[in-house]
């Protein structure tokens, strides 16, 4: 930006911050502009353009009223029109002293609806002619000319055009603001969803193996002296589970550091891999009974992963909070599959154990793929049931 443009912009900003001062300067400009025809034509008396005392007072009063045009546009328009009519009648025809009334009319048109602005324009255009007709000194055509119809029409149309342009600019700014707000909300929503997804993955992958480590470490400590071989086997399970954690955590942390295009992940686990979960749970000391009925169907990828995670969470809870036994049932039908994991309750209430993040994560996962899940105590057992549909994707 050039120095001159910068100075102009600075001056404009200053006037915008001081509207009363700006209007006072503008009123002075209007007054000087209206006086120019009188000063430029020394033979004004020969063309019916004479600066009388009434004209000078009317022009001065009208110019002073312009200072208040922002605060009370309609009142200023009425008053400037009245003093302008006085000057018109005194001059017996058109006079520059009516200029403040045109400025006030422009302000009314800028700040009022189109209908009311047009009505004010008609009044300003006809009032001087009507006043002159009342004097009986002019005919109708002359009266309309003396009524300064072009001035009033120009002021009205200019004000309406400026108001519409400002409305369009304001609407564009509002749309831009809303679009920016929508983008921000969308970004926050995506961040929240990603955080939930990572939290689920951390819980599903890590918590299961941490539970194995906890159980097997406790078993090894109990058998360390009584049965060193069994304790050594338990520690082997601890090492296996901890190694799995060490292998999985860097990949999960990579989700936080990489974009989706940069990720090179292994295939997601599926319900067909549940045999590995059962075998791992059995090696950890959980006695698992597993039965499948019906003909297995091909599930959508997201649903398949969800089924695997539900089984994983159910077996992990049975290992952590149960009495050492669990029953897994997979029932297939034409619409999808039913999953059920149940285990005897060792403690008075399984619901009160832990942070329940696993249960929350299961509900969110199942709901995301259009399924249903229930979990709760039934007699002396804790039962997790999920219904997953073969034709619904996330």
From TrEMBL:
Xref: InterPro entries: DUF7134 (IPR055558), HATPase_C_sf (IPR036890), Sensor_HK_TwoCompSys (IPR050482), Sig_transdc_His_kin_sub3_dim/P (IPR011712)
Domain Signal transduction histidine kinase subgroup 3 dimerisation and phosphoacceptor per the UniProt entry, residue ranges: 194-260
Annotated protein name in UniProt: histidine kinase
Reaction(s) the record says it catalyses: ATP + protein L-histidine = ADP + protein N-phospho-L-histidine
Keyword Phosphoprotein: yes
Gene3D superfamilies in alphabetical order: 1.20.5.1930, Histidine kinase-like ATPase, C-terminal domain
Keywords: ATP-binding, Kinase, Membrane, Nucleotide-binding, Phosphoprotein, Transferase, Transmembrane, Transmembrane helix, Two-component regulatory system
DUF7134 domain boundaries: 12-133
EC number: 2.7.13.3
Gene Ontology molecular-function annotations: kinase activity
Record-annotated membrane-spanning stretches: 21-39, 51-68, 75-99, 119-141
Domain of life: Bacteria
């Amino acid at each position: 930006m050039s120095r001159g443009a910068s100075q102009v912009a600075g001056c404009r900003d200053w006037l915008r911050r001081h509207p009363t001062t700006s209007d006072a300067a503008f009123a002075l400009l209007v007054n000087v502009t209206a006086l120019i025809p009188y000063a430029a034509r020394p033979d004004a008396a020969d063309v019916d353009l004479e600066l009388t005392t009434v004209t000078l007072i009317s022009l001065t009063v009208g110019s002073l009223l312009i200072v208040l045009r922002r605060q009370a546009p309609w009142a200023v328009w009425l008053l400037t029109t009245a003093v302008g009519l006085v000057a018109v009648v005194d001059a017996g025809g058109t006079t520059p002293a009516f200029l403040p009334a045109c400025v006030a009319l422009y302000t009314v048109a800028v700040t009022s609806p189109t209908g009311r602005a047009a009505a004010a324009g008609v009044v300003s255009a006809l009032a001087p002619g009507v006043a002159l007709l009342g004097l009986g000194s002019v005919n109708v055509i002359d009266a309309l000319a003396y009524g300064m119809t072009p001035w009033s029409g120009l002021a009205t149309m200019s004000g309406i055009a400026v108001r519409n342009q400002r409305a369009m600019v304001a609407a564009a700014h509002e749309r831009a603001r809303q679009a920016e707000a929508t983008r921000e909300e969308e970004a926050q929503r995506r961040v929240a969803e990603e955080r939930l997804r990572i939290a689920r993955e951390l819980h599903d992958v890590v918590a299961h193996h941490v539970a194995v480590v906890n159980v097997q470490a406790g078993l090894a400590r109990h058998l360390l002296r009584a049965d060193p071989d069994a304790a050594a086997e338990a520690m082997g399970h601890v090492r296996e589970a901890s190694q799995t954690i060490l292998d999985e955590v860097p990949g999960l942390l990579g989700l936080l550091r990489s974009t989706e295009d940069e990720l090179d992940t292994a295939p997601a686990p599926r319900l067909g891999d549940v045999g590995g979960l059962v075998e791992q749970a059995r090696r950890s000391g959980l006695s698992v009974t597993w039965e499948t009925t019906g003909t297995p169907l091909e599930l959508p990828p997201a649903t398949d992963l969800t089924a695997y995670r539900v089984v994983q969470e159910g077996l992990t809870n049975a290992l952590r909070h149960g009495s050492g036994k669990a029953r897994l049932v997979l029932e297939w039908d034409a619409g999808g599959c039913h999953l059920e994991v149940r285990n005897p309750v060792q403690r008075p209430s399984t619901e009160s154990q832990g942070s329940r993040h696993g249960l929350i994560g299961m509900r969110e996962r199942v709901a995301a793929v259009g399924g249903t899940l229930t979990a709760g105590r039934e007699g002396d057992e804790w039962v997790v049931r999920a219904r997953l549909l073969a034709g619904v994707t996330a």
